[in-house]
Every structure is written in structure tokens, then in C-alpha cells.
């Protein structure tokens, strides 16, 4: 099955002669199982008709901010279009569109959609030889590339002007194979949904005090970042921490208590492909929370604690096709306890943190973990920055 199967591809067409090839391109994308919507710049309509593209894509073709053809004009919402898309492909991308994308101009629907889209963006440049070789074009392409836009290289051949050289838009077949190869290698989790719990939970005692732990959430936030870079849509259910996830594909849901974390996991669990429970969830909470601040006296204070829900265990019970990753933080008999946790909570992978290892655990920027798979084979990773450890964990999940 193609990685594009079931994916929503927004094809942006700007005004170059190569626009005529987009009819074949739409057909190929649909053959791969993609759902295709087309946006054209107003001038692109001179090169290929919206009617042809609407017929082939089986979706209305959009070009203007306001749809004036209807009796009651409607607004073509570029933000919604950007959010709809799993992938934005601009082909052909003319020198003019590339320059405007680079400088953030948005005087047409396609450019406004590009600016608001959060999905991976690909462009297939198409222009005449001299324009392609011009310093402004190459520096614009470099800037776009460094901001994360993937450039599908233009091809060599006869150009509309009669010149021969680089500048032709890549052939539709080449565009599609570039997309599929790139997605598989650079975004192996494209189209996947990943749920991650991170940070501590705070269990209130009264309006000012709580039971908590030393977790900072760093490991979970690093995992979220890597998963998003791999192309996944990430739901990060985070306990209290000062950390902020910046990647646009990470939706952070902030919670305080284990019960709140459980509720968010229950809301999202069914629709995700991979769940990683890295949060340091409090196993117990006070049986009763005082509405008013507790005042001290000379007698010992006794708190009655009751069990919190076990989020990872719940995920293990409910598991169908999801891949489930648990964490264990141990101070002694680490491997024995960790293997038991993996089995009791029906995990596919367990990440063991042994507090005995220097540089591992809470409050450090590094971590040293051992991965345990469901056959109970162990894979110790080297002490490393938590970002690298997160990368190794995600790569392990991909390879298994
Ligand atoms: N976990 C959870 N919900 C809880 C407790 C833990 O989801 N209420 C998850 C953690 O996110 C982690 C794993 O379970 O992935 C840790 O396993 P657990 O057996 O709960 O570890 P500890 O809480 O450390 O248990 P113990 O104190 O018995 O070692």
C-alpha cells in the first residue's frame, strides 16, 4: 500500500506552462489512494482549466478568497484548507510564487494557505533556464529548503522558450516517487498519530499543597519533538512543567492530576497508532482534598492515600492495533521489575531507567536507558542527551 493511501493532498498550481501536466499528476496521486484538492493561482487558470482539474480530482477547485460564483458568496477559508491537508504540494512552483513564499507574501489563496498550513510542504519548481539559474531564485530555494520545504528538483530538457537546460518541472511520475520516497525516509510516521504522556502529576492535598515528584517532563517532550519531526501528529498530555512544545504538529493538553491525565488519554487513545506513557504518574492521591488550607498543630498529620488509575495498564487492556510503550524507573532489581511491568501492562516496549546509572533519571539533560521488547530481549543504549535517547527510542519503534 502506498504511503499516500488515504492521505489528503492539497495541490497548489501556479502559473507556469507546466501546469498542463498537473492533470496527469492529479490522476497519479489519486491512483496512489490520495484524496486531492486543488488550489490555483488566478493566472494558472490560463494554462489549465479548473473544470478539468475538478473533474479529475472530484473536488471543487479553489482560486479566489471569495467564491463569487454562488448566489450567496462564500469565503474560501485558507486556514481550514491548510488544516485539512496532510501534505501541500505546489507544482508547478514558478519563480514568482517561490519568491513570494520566501518573503511571506500572501496576495492569493494559494500563498495564504501555504502560510497557514502546518503539514509538510513540497514544491516542484518550473521556470525558464535563466530564471532558474538566477541568484535570487537559488537563494530563495535555499531559504525555503532551510525552513523545511522539500524541493523536488527541476529536470533538464527542452524548455518552453526553446532553451535547453534545467528548469522543467519534474515529470508527474517523478514527483510522485519523490514524494513517496521522501515521506518513507524522512517522515516515516507521516499520517500516524502518536499519544505521549509526560511530566509529573500533582495530587492536591488542600488549595496550596500537593503530592508530586521530581519529573521535569524533558524525556516526554523530546519524544514528542522527534515523533513530530518524523511526520506524526502528536498529542502530548502533559503534567505540570515549564516546558513548551514548539513543533506545529504537537498538540499539548495540559493536566494536573492523574485523573485528568487518564481522562485525556481515554479521549484520544482509540484513534492513535502509537502510545508512549513516559509520565511519572502519582500512584496515590489523598483520599479527600480539603477546600480550605490545612492549619498546623502539634499532632502528627496523617494523610489517607488511595490508588490513582494506572493509565499505562488501562492502555494495555484496551490495546487493539496500537503499539504501546511504557517506562519504568527503578532503584534496585531493575531488569526483573521492568520485565514484570512490560508483561503486566501488556506493553510492546519498555524503557527502563535505572536510577543507579549516573546521568540517568530526573532533572538531568542526559539519560541512560535499556529497551526491553516484548520477547524480553534487552537493548542497552548509551548515556546520551535526552534528545538523542528520544531519537533512538523512536527509531527502535520504527524498526520493530
Ligand atoms: N503509569 C501510568 N499510570 C500510573 C502509574 C504509572 O500510566 N498511575 C505508567 C508510567 O507512565 C510508566 C509506567 O506506568 O510508563 C511505570 O510503571 P509503574 O509500575 O506504575 O511504575 P511505578 O509507578 O514506578 O510503580 P512501582 O512504584 O510499583 O515501581
Kindly describe this structure.
By secondary structure, this protein is an alpha/beta fold. The protein folds into 2 domains: 8-186, Flavin prenyltransferase-like (Rossmann fold, 3-Layer(aba) Sandwich), CATH 3.40.50; 193-288 and 302-399, 3-Layer(aba) Sandwich (Rossmann fold). The chain is 32% helix and 24% strand. It has 13 helices and 23 strands. It has helices at 22-31, 50-57, 78-84, 95-103, 109-116, 129-133, 135-146, 172-186, 218-229, 258-268, 311-318, 334-344, 386-399; strands spanning 8-13, 35-40, 66-67, 74-75, 87-93, 121-125, 150-151, 155-158, 164-168, 193-198, 203-204, 210-211, 233-238, 250-254, 274-277, 284-286, 305-307, 323-330, 349-354, 366-367, 369-373, 378-380, 384-385. It has an 8-stranded mixed beta sheet with strand order 14-13-10-15-18-19-21-22, sandwiched between helices. A 5-stranded parallel beta sheet has the order 2-1-5-6-7, with helices on both faces. A two-stranded antiparallel sheet has the order 3-4. It starts with 7 loop residues before the first strand and ends with a helix.
CA-based gyration radius = 26 Å
Q: Per CATH, what is the topology of the largest domain? A: Rossmann fold
Task: Please give the domain count.
Answer: 2
Q: Indicate the mean pLDDT.
A: 94
Count of runs of 4 or more consecutive helical residues: 13
CATH class of the largest domain, please? Alpha Beta
Q: CATH architecture of the largest domain, please?
A: 3-Layer(aba) Sandwich
What spatial form do the alpha-carbon principal axes imply? Answer: elongated
Main sheet record: 8 strands, mixed
Number of beta-strand segments: 23
CATH superfamily of the largest domain: CoaB-like
Low-confidence stretches: none
What is the topology, as strand order, of the major beta sheet?
Answer: 14-13-10-15-18-19-21-22
In this entry the ligands are: cytidine-5'-triphosphate
Helix content: 25-40%
Proportion of beta-strand residues: 15-25%
Secondary structural class: alpha/beta
Alpha-carbon distance between the two ends: 19 Å
